[in-house]
Hints:
By secondary structure, this protein is of the alpha+beta class. The protein has helices spanning 2-25, 44-50, 54-57, 62-65, 81-86, 131-152, 156-171, 202-209, 218-226, 244-249, 282-348, 353-384, 397-414, 434-451, 467-471, 519-529, 557-560; strands at 29-33, 39-42, 69-70, 73-74, 92-100, 103-116, 119-129, 175-182, 187-195, 212-213, 230-232, 254-262, 265-274, 392-396, 418-425, 429-433, 457-466, 477-486, 533-539, 542-553. The longest helix is centred in the middle third of the chain and has 67 residues, at 282-348.
Amino acid sequence: MTSDLAALVNQLQSTLGKMEIALGGISEAIVWTGEDGRIQWSNATFDQLIEQHRFVVLGAPLLNLLPLRQQGQTVATSAHPLTLARTGQSSQTAIYEFHRSTTRFLLEIFSTQVQFKGQQLSTVLVIRDVTEQKQIEQRQAIQFSVTRTLAQAVSLEEAIPRILQAVCEGDGWEVGALWHHNPSLDRLCWQGSWHHPTAHYPGFEGISRATSFGMGEGLPGRVWLNKHPVWITPVADDPNFPRHAIANREHLQTGFAFPILSQGNVIGVLEFFSPTARQPDDALLLVMLDIGSQISQFWQRKQAEFQIQEQLEELSKLNAVKDEFLSTVSHELRTPIANMRMAIELLKSASTVEKREHYLEILKVQCLREAELINDLLDLQRLEATSYCPMHQTIQLHDWLAGVVEPFQSRVQFHQQRLRLDLSLANAPLTIDCTGLERIVVELLNNACKYTPEKGDITLSARYITGSAESGSDASTATIILAVSNQASIPAAALPHIFEKFYRVAQTDIRRQGGTGLGLALVQKLVEQMHGKIEVESAYNRTTFTVQLPSMLGLDMLALQ
């Protein structure tokens, strides 16, 4: 009997040995725990997975040797597959993350409890490494999510938070951020970030918001400089990571970043961080480069759409201006003609010489008005078509201006206005386009006389500044500064429109003399053609137009040629 029992024991030991050899050689890791959660038996695959020797594994708590994560977060003890099986939730299968030193595994774990006669004896976990398969699936899901997000998004600002979330949740990162290139600063500036809802990194996100990076500075700056992905671990030991102190305090260990390129230039950088140490993953970087390419194409498409929209809006504005211009021109051209036709009809039936003279005067005035409008339109068209040909002459500015102003003396006397000249600083010979300059002075004086009340004053001042006095340029160059000032005000709301075609300031034509509304538009175009600038100021019942024009100092046209 004793010999039979010994033989049976030997046979069982042999069978168990063979089973252990067989179970140790399979690809799945198997671990067997007692009621207290301590390991009673494990196969060699499990020992290799956790990188521990058999004498360490046996009797050790499984929860300590197999800490798990899901979506970047540590799995609580109550949600661990061992606990689920021990609490009666048998036959549970799920995917978990397991980190061993710097390697991240994705494990499919089946857990169940073993009972005998209604009493739980132990818990068995069957663990299969599905890292490669699941990473491919997850990263395909990330790419699909990014593609769908970009297809649905109106702007990059709307899409980026969802892209950051997709990458973080899909590949186990807890923090993601976007850095965009600010052309005015020529630096990378923080634009947005995402972190896992159950995790928070206030210090790290706060310093990121307040930081910008130049080329080559920090993780984003290195990506900007090299135009290639960069992977760092641990971040606390990286010599070119200015945020390392806070990252270390908040237990961020691994970071990687990749560029968003547009026509070979970096327009942004996406970076991600994990609290676990992770080795560089070439497959992940290839996926991220594809995502960067998608974002770049989206950005370029939106830029093109924005430019097209701007062009459409500009065309719409130009079309509206054209319609308004044609409407105004049509009205301005028809009004004198209508007045002339009426005067002709009245002239036919005029019974006295006085009436005939009156109607003839109306015809004359309206004919001159029509001719003036047509001439102004032709002049404006010629100036806008840049077909204006300047005629330079050398003049003594003081004497020349006095001659231009002379015809206005009788006009201001008639309206009881005062015209004052300040030409004491305009006594040098200058070479300039006299035709254009005369038109500018005449239009500004006409405008001043028209809107200045009786006993009001009008001032014309002129001076010049030599080029050397202004900027060290050739002393033969000069800038003429003309100012026409009158006692009248232009409402602040009207100032931005004062040089627009046909624009008239309401209720300021005190004598109701009318006009084409083209005078100041012509002046502005002439000044531009002469490479000068014109400004207007109006305050405290005083309006001043100031014109600056370049000229040559004391040279005649022969010398210029």
